[in-house]
Design brief:
A: 193 residues; alpha+beta; GMP Synthetase, Chain A, domain 3; six-stranded antiparallel beta sheet; three-stranded mixed beta sheet; B: Rossmann fold; two-stranded antiparallel ribbon; 6% strand
């Protein structure tokens, strides 16, 4: 049996553990109302207080009277089984594909790629995410940066495609004053002449 | 012998107090290197499994605190299949009452084999002890085009991860600072799963999350291996390498050896010039300079032997040699790991016997242990060099090669073949078959041997050799000198025997011939007479039961007594003093060859017997080994004497 790769990571809240899973395992994001098999049972009546799905993780919070060392193994087994049935998970709010794309892009911008942009004073914000196309605005020090295109495609797009494989295009909003790509010709006529 | 043979039972007692950390890792994961770097206590670093078999402890100083680090044997998992891995499992088992549980565990992970190493880490994390991961060979991962995000790895594992690039002091400082804090090391939120399928998924997920790109097989290593592991070329190159090995030992060492010899010759001259008391002069000239000097002369050769072994080991070639020889070992009913043990025995049988701990099957262990003392160890080297020098003139050549080197190579080859044959016999006749146990052997990438490891290996070998000369050999030599010089003869006795008391050479020759040693030598003459040995060789052989080098020292003493100015000359000119061959040359080709063969087979090493006793837990096996080897030695020497005698 091939099991879906997953591992737990701690969060700031000791009762919440972030179970890292491959992007695209679950076709949804946000809080969960019901999950398949034992995980659903645990959420309804047992030690699990809340489940929230991120693009690359499942956040599971335990009820107040439970700890991870004791409840952990059962949760792990239940999660492994539940991940085998991705379409039986029920999100709190129905999600469109556009929502998933938006969440995936948000996840990229919150992650290491976004950290990299912020590390040198750049800024990336989501402009739109629909019909498998996404648009971001690169501002701050990115504005006049000749390497911004490189960051956009080799970092953001690569990361986004991992989380949302159906992606058609990621592009940056044109900034006023941002130089267009392509050769610049010397004017033939002197200005003001 | 224990001192110069590298790993022995160092650290059998445990150091108490302070934080205790255990060092765990797969073979070749840079564990021993890290241990040396942290503790400054030297152990050998090797490229094949089974190098670190004894229990090692060292103290790392961090500021004013002391952290005791125990270097556990390399292991691939905590499901033990060999005595080595059993040790690791026992130490890490908090419920094991016999061994103290460490306060924390340092796990070395080789960045180039992370997928496999994480399986071990998962098991270690199940112990619940604080863990700090030390990531090694990240430079090699980068060179081979792999990637790894250390921060993400740390996040995914939930334990501290420190990357240490071989020998980098800043990396080490970071690790050292973390050592005493084991109680506050980050703990994983949940230990990894035990179920194998789930564990695989955990490993996969951690690797994904850390952005691990499997490094492509090292191009350089692959190209080299295409030739070196080739069934035909590889085997040919292996034998060529071994052949060159012995040629180098001879050609390079000779001038160095001559230099050492000339120093001792000068000392000898000074003694004869300035020391008038005949007894003192005899002691200094014969026992110390003649006896010990003749052993110390071999220091260059010992150094060269260890230089080459550590070069082969450090570069990664030894594992290839073991791999190539695995097929040959299978003929002997053994597996590749046994070859490692036999190969280590080239330096000394003791690390060889200890390396058998990596063999999972007890039957294989005993069979290998019985064969290991037949491998040509560095102590035999001294005897071989001396006797080969007597047998073959230095100028003689076989084709383009020095004949002495060829004879040496043959001796090493015969030793190795005999060791394997012995192992086969013991394997064959030692009881029923057991389950076939898995065999795996890692082929590390070729690496440039680290200069420090090489220097350490040579230094500790030379130091050990000299220490041995200073202890066992000195004591036995002085004892033999007493036997050779007593009883004292008065001038009147000498005159009545027809010796002029003024002629010192004649006097010492007479004294030696009528000493207690001569009585002992004559007493056992019936045993060795068929081999062509006279009483002087007998005394040497008896003395060499404590350590082989004593033989060289004894002959050196006898020769120095007979011709103090040119002991080597005296040795070649030595004749039988009595018996049917009186007046004939003693070191005929037949006798010399018989002696060589005798030394090839006989177990003349108290340290080996001691270690065998310790490793097998009874006197039975050492007794068996000593007995069979003596009988074998005598028989083979007799055959050699007969055959060579008939041919010459």
């Amino acid at each position: 049996m091939t099991t879906i790769p997953m591992h737990p990571e701690p969060t700031t809240d000791p009762r919440t553990v972030r179970w890292v899973i491959p992007a695209g395992t679950l076709p949804l994001v946000g809080p969960i109302t019901d999950a398949p098999a034992d995980l659903g049972t645990m959420l309804r009546s047992g030690p699990v207080a809340a489940i929230e799905v991120e693009t690359q993780a499942v956040l599971i919070r335990l009820a107040a009277d439970h700890t991870w060392p004791t409840a952990g193994p059962r949760v792990r087994d239940a999660l492994a089984t539940a991940l085998e049935h991705p379409h039986e998970w029920r999100p709190a709010t129905a999600l469109t594909e556009d929502d998933l794309l938006h969440a995936a892009l948000q996840d990229v911008l919150n992650g290491p790629a976004g950290d990299y942009i912020r590390s040198h004073g750049g800024e990336a914000t989501i402009v739109s995410a629909r019909d498998r196309r996404a648009e971001v605005r690169l501002s701050g020090t990115c504005t006049h940066c000749p390497a911004a295109d490189f960051t956009l495609h080799s970092r953001l797009e690569t990361e986004l495609r991992k989380r949302f494989p159906a992606l058609l295009e990621l592009h940056a909003t044109e900034q006023p004053g941002r130089r267009r790509p392509g050769p610049t010709w010397l004017p033939l006529r002197r200005r003001g002449a | 012998m224990s001192a110069h043979c590298g790993p022995t039972g160092a650290g059998t007692g445990t150091i108490t107090g302070g934080t205790r950390l255990a060092l765990v890792g797969s073979p070749n994961s840079g564990k021993s290197t890290l241990f040396n770097a942290l503790t400054g206590l030297r152990t050998k670093t090797g490229n094949y499994p089974g190098v670190t078999v004894a229990r090692y402890e060292g103290t790392a100083r961090v500021g004013k605190q002391e952290v005791v680090i125990e270097d556990l044997p390399g292991t691939y998992s905590l499901d033990p299949i060999s005595p080595d891995e059993q040790v690791v499992a026992d130490v890490l088992d908090p419920d094991n009452p016999d061994l103290g549980t460490p306060d924390g565990i340092l796990v070395t992970l080789d960045a180039t084999t992370l997928r496999r190493s994480l399986g071990l880490l998962a098991q270690v994390m199940r112990t619940g002890l604080p863990i700090c991961v030390v990531l090694t060979f990240r430079d090699e991962l980068a060179r081979r085009g792999g990637t790894l995000d250390v921060a993400a790895l740390r996040r995914a594992l939930g334990v501290p991860v420190v990357a240490v690039t071989g020998g980098s002091r800043t990396d080490l400082a970071e690790l050292q600072a973390a050592l005493p804090e084991s109680a506050s090391w980050e703990r994983p939120v949940l230990p990894p799963p035990t179920d194998p399928a789930q564990r695989r998924s955990w490993v996969e997920s951690v690797l994904l999350s850390a952005g691990y790109e499997v490094p492509e097989a090292d191009q350089r290593t692959r190209r080299i291996d295409a030739v070196l592991l080739h069934p035909l070329w590889g085997t040919l190159i292996f034998f060529a390498t071994m052949f060159a090995f012995f040629q180098i030992i001879f050609t390079v060492a000779t001038p160095l050896q001559d230099a050492v010899q000339s120093v001792f010759d000068r000392l000898g001259t000074l003694v004869t010039e300035y020391v008038s008391n005949p007894l003192l002069a005899g002691f200094l000239g014969n026992a110390l300079i003649g006896g010990l000097g003749s052993v110390v002369v071999f220091l260059p050769q010992i150094a060269l032997l260890f230089l080459m072994i550590s070069l082969l080991e450090g570069s990664g070639y030894l594992s290839r040699a073991a791999f190539l020889m695995d097929r040959l070992m299978a003929r002997a009913g053994l597996e590749g790991r046994a070859f490692v043990a036999l190969l280590s025995s080239l330096a000394c049988a003791i690390p060889g016997i200890m390396a058998t701990r990596s063999l999972p099957s007890a039957k294989d262990r005993f069979a290998t242990m019985m064969g290991a003392p037949l491998m040509t160890c560095s102590a035999r080297l001294t005897v071989y060099v001396l006797l080969t020098g007597l047998l073959v003139s230095p100028g003689a050549r076989v084709g383009p090669f020095g004949a002495q080197g060829v004879v040496m190579f043959a001796l090493y080859l015969v030793g190795a073949l005999s060791a394997m044959a012995t192992a086969w016999v013991f394997k064959r006749f030692s009881s029923r078959g057991g389950p076939v146990l898995p065999f795996y052997m890692e082929m590390p990438s070729y690496r440039l041997p680290r200069r420090r490891s090489v220097a350490d290996a040579i230094w500790s070998a030379c130091k050990g050799f000299l220490a041995k000369v200073g202890r066992i050999i000195l004591v036995v030599t002085v004892g033999l000198w007493l036997l050779l010089s007593l009883p004292l003869h008065s001038d009147a006795q000498l005159r009545s025997a027809g010796v002029d008391p003024a002629d010192r050479t004649a006097v010492s020759a007479y004294e030696v011939d009528h000493s207690y040693a001569a009585d002992i030598g004559h007493a056992i003459e019936p045993v060795f007479e068929p081999l062509g040995f006279d009483w002087r060789i007998n005394v040497g052989v008896l003395g060499s039961l404590s350590a082989r080098e004593v033989f060289v020292a004894t002959l050196g003493q006898v020769a120095a007594a007979q011709n103090p100015d040119q002991p080597t000359e005296a040795l070649t000119q030595m004749t039988y003093t009595d018996g049917p061959h009186q007046g004939q040359k003693l070191f005929t080709p037949a006798t010399t060859a018989a002696l060589l063969v005798f030394f090839l087979y006989a177990l003349q090493c108290m340290s080996t017997i001691g270690v065998m006793r310790r490793e097998t837990g009874s006197w039975k096996w050492p007794a068996v080994a000593f007995g069979y080897m003596f009988v074998l030695a005598w028989t083979m020497a007799f055959l050699t004497h007969t055959v060579v005698g008939a041919l010459t």
